[in-house]
Protein 1
Amino acid sequence: MERVLVTGASGFIGEPLVQVLLKKGYLIRSTSRVLTKGSESDSVEHYSFDLGDDSPDYKKLLAGVDVVIHLAARVHALHESEDKLSDYSKINTIGTERLANAAAKNDVKRFIFLSSIKVNGERNIADEKGKILAFNESDDPRPQGAYAKSKLEAEDAIRKICHESKMDFVILRPTLVYGPDVRANFLSLLDVVNNNYPLPLASVKNKRSLLYVGNLVHVISLCVNCSEVANQTYLISDTDISVPELVRTIASLLEKRALLFPFPVRYLRAIGSLTGKRQIIERLTDSLLVDNNSICKDVKWVPPHSFDEGLKTTIDWYIHAKDA
């Protein structure tokens, strides 16, 4: 029976991933700063591990491990300042490189790394006819900000280590992930709609790719033992939707009115720049689509959860959390 090491196992993605892997019969070794839901099972060993530690016991951590799924990271923040560049690098780049190097030296067969679509860039461009050009695996990376740059540097380090060893890699770049326990921008959007705040987004005509956490952990689990994915990089999503349509769907599930009103997008962008909210406005108005055909083809992936199901599960969690 194969043993899988999951870093960041107590997080938004890590907890459901551990449960899926347990159901598939894998032995799990988890790392996090708190115990995971699966840590009381005989099939889960929990280890304390900090990516920023200069001298962790890699030999103990990786003993008997066949596959590493590396989720732990310093997460993206909207307002990154220059003094945080080294923090992202220490955790996301240097910490990942050390872990991957130790994994290769301890005979780990595969290193699965959860990167980010931000490595490709923050927005799509359009062709001469105005058609949005979705990101794909052949695009040149265009990371913006410390977080995205640290993820790309980590990818490059993993590829180099695997090229010089017998270990293979799988790099996954998911789009915006939502689901129960979601935080950051998606949670803020839920709050805005739930509180009936009017939004000047009726004139927005964009498309953004999303990914339900249940579908993400499913495809990660498929990558553990699939030979076709060895030494490949994949973009992952399961839904394409406009921001106004997303707001309307959320409002319907919350039994609220979607208070959208028209406002010229160019003025929205100008206001965002003047008020220091440029990044927020860009995420609400720009398009970010990905082509997920490669991962679907190589692992024969059919997302098990529909958008309606995933969003309803998320809203049910949100309502329950508000009432608790």
Protein 2
Amino acid sequence: MSYEEIEFTRHCDAVQIPQGIKITIPKGTAGVITQSLGDTYTLQLPTLGGLYRVSDSDADAIGKESKGPAPEATPSTGGKVSEHQVWAQLKNVYDPEIPVNIVELGLVYDLAVNDLPEGGSNVDVKMTLTAQGCGMGPAIAMDAQTRIEGIPGVEEANVEVVWDPPWTPAMISPEGKEKLGID
């Protein structure tokens, strides 16, 4: 991956990595885009001392064009939420330090879509992280939850971080291994 130097053209909200703290980056701040995956950018900002995640909705602040909305999450036949829709949304969730989505990393252990009697669906996801000390864990889980709740017909999403079984690199999909250069 090639890094790209940028300068913020306006004040912009960002999330500090791995702390998950929301801050506003001042106009004129210089930085380097270290990763551009899904609908977020990871930037190294030397004057602020660390890595920060900027949403695609603020791409203009770093001189980029928005990639547009995440893949369509329209309801399936009959208005019911399908597992396929949920998996599609989860493929847009990235650890800002790893260029592979959480599905291809093998971090999603269980997914269940439950129809509610009053209509709509409840989605339960069990996922893990590559390391228990990952400071971005809460932010990654919240990103997954927000994306799932954005699917029409989802009334509630519960994303639980679990540690059993422990994650290993063997859980990475063949596609993920290829992106990471792992045999």
Protein 3
Amino acid sequence: MVDPVAPTAEVKFRSDITVELVKATAADSDVAFAARVSTAGERSLDSVDADPASAAGLIRYLMRERHGSPFEHSVMTFYVQAPIFVWREHMRHRVASYNEESGRYRVLDPVFYVPGVDRRLVQQGKPGAYEFVEGTREQYELTNAAMRESVTQAYGAYVRMLDAGVAREVARMVLPVSIYSSAYVTMNARALMNFLSLRRKDDDSTFPSYPQREIEMVAERYEEEWSRLMPLTHAAFVAAGRVSP
């Protein structure tokens, strides 16, 4: 038996993406003691609790010379709520561990993404170097209305299938990629820098990137949390042109 679902379940719309830092073992000092084992061996244990400020020069050196492994000893876990189309891009980064909610085992909530009024709608340029510009009021109203109508119909069909006894894993096939899903994402600082180098557009980047706006919203929140946990490492990353070591 499937869980009962009210056929009049209210469909909700959002234009945001939620990123919550769940836990972290991440500090600039992690980079320092991991790097020092190369030359100090067991004496590197003495620097585990050292003042990270004393290692600022070492961190900059490691970043500049792209000695990446010392950055792998700082780990963060995030809880993220984002539409499915964002997750499909996110999971292309095989440098993270994921556990996502399952439409096979639970009835999916009727929460869908619609672009906010500040979302640029018109694409210009060539593949790999797109530029997005403001749409007209008419384009925004069309997009908003079409998406709301489409997902409302789709979720209604999903509910009818569940109420008829169709398995969740089959009924979910009717749902669009704008439906929200949630997952835990765990990655180390080196992996996160790789993600940020590709999923944030920044004029100071050595290698320009042109991410879809919605995944950039995830990257912005990751970077905000990471820069607070590891300010020296973050500063070195920025100074090095946002190139992942």
